[in-house]
Hints:
Elements: H1 10-33, H2 49-55, H3 58-87, H4 98-109, H5 112-125, H6 132-156, H7 160-168, H8 173-184, H9 186-201, H10 205-210, H11 218-228, H12 232-265
Amino acid sequence: xxxxxxxxxxxxxxxxxxxxxxxxxxxxxxxxxxxxxxxxxxxxxxxxxxxxxxxxxxxxxxxxxxxxxxxxxxxxxxxxxxxxxxxxxxxxxxxxxxxxxxxxxxxxxxxxxxxxxxxxxxxxxxxxxxxxxxxxxxxxxxxxxxxxxxxxxxxxxxxxxxxxxxxxxxxxxxxxxxxxxxxxxxxxxxxxxxxxxxxxxxxxxxxxxxxxxxxxxxxxxxxxxxxxxxxxxxxxxxxxxxxxxxxxxxxxxxxxxxxxxxxxxx
Length: 266
């Protein structure tokens, strides 16, 4: 006899929807403000002039492009370093020395203001000219720890017999990596790269310390604009970023669903 259906827990349902509201209502209000004629007055009517003004604003597009280029470069470097570090323990190693684990985790635990200050002192000590290069290196050094732990978990999911079978068939370590390990860790690589890009794109403190006077990223530009007064163009920019982020999530989700359907169908 089938068991009776349990009634829904009202408290858990309330907490779930309250959490969803807490997370997404500010974003929804921000989207509405991007179309208001007067963002301070909800009854002022709707318009698209702020989106048009955003397209014509060089003051925001240049920092946006700086953040995008720095994010791509730092994410690529961090993904390379973190992946090589994870694979360096052995093709399918799952045992990490506790001391090394703590050392790699340290950049994640240290407050960003301390990380930014230490990187600034390091660059000045070795006479690096502050600019895009120093920001890329700083972001990559911070994000590499996140990549490392993501790739370690990805490597743990692999069957150790794959590497041993490839070795028995005469494959060299480099061939094992390129033809056995790498194709099986592509999902982890994609996730690690996207996380590193996100960390770099919205970073403020480390960029503040390491960018110097000749470079402005988007978070730094937004901070400077908010100090002198609110600009409705920021709402339009936030709307664009929300749409791009949502579109990327939907694309990744659809690809994952397609992969599951292919696997289940086969």
